[in-house]
Structures are given as structure tokens and as C-alpha cells.
Amino acid sequence: MDKTDHDQTDPTPATLDARGLLCPLPVLRARRLLQSMPAGATLVVTATDPTAARDFEAFCAATGHRLTGTDQHDGVYRFRIVRADAS
Question: 23, 27, 45, 61: which could join 79 in a potential S-S bond, CB 3.0 to 4.6 Å?
Fold first, then answer.
């Protein structure tokens, strides 16, 4: 699992490499990382589980985080998530 530091002043998003992990691990690891991030920070997750797209959509709908981008290339899915306000 790789991640970058997620300082509020750093425009570089945090990253989570969840390739090779199966449901529900990509979402659970993203959830844990998002909890440590400030509101408005961005997390980019890469995953290979084909159910991850559905899982991240449901996760964001349930938690209020915003799924601002998704793409897929050669079996690798990438999700861009913006952390919801802590309120």
C-alpha cells in the first residue's frame, strides 16, 4: 500500500495502491486513509478488483465523500475521491 503525505497546503493528492486486493479491502483502506485527511483533500485510489467501481460509488454515496473521477485502463481502475467536510 503506497500513499503520499496529505498536507492541506500540498496540491498533490494522497494515493492508495489497492491493486490485487479484493472487496471490501480497497474501500476499507480508503476509508481509513480518508479519516486521517482534512476536509476537501483528495485521495486517488488504484485498484484491480472489477467490483471496485460499484463499491466506491456506494461508499461515497453513504459517507458524503465526492467521487470526482473514475477511469479504467488495462484492468486497472482509478478513483479520485474528495473528502467530505468533517461536520
Answer: 45
Q: Residue 60 catalytic?
A: no
Q: Which of 23, 28, 53, 84 is catalytic?
A: 23
> Is the CB of residue 77 less than 8 Å from the CB of residue 53?
yes
Mind listing the pLDDT tens digit for each residue in 4-42? 444 444 578 999 999 999 999 999 999 999 999 999 999
Fold held by 14-82 = Translation Initiation Factor IF3 (3.30.110)
pTM across the whole model: 0.84
Q: Which residues contact 46 (CB under 8 A, 6 or more apart)?
A: 15, 16, 17, 18, 19, 76, 77, 78
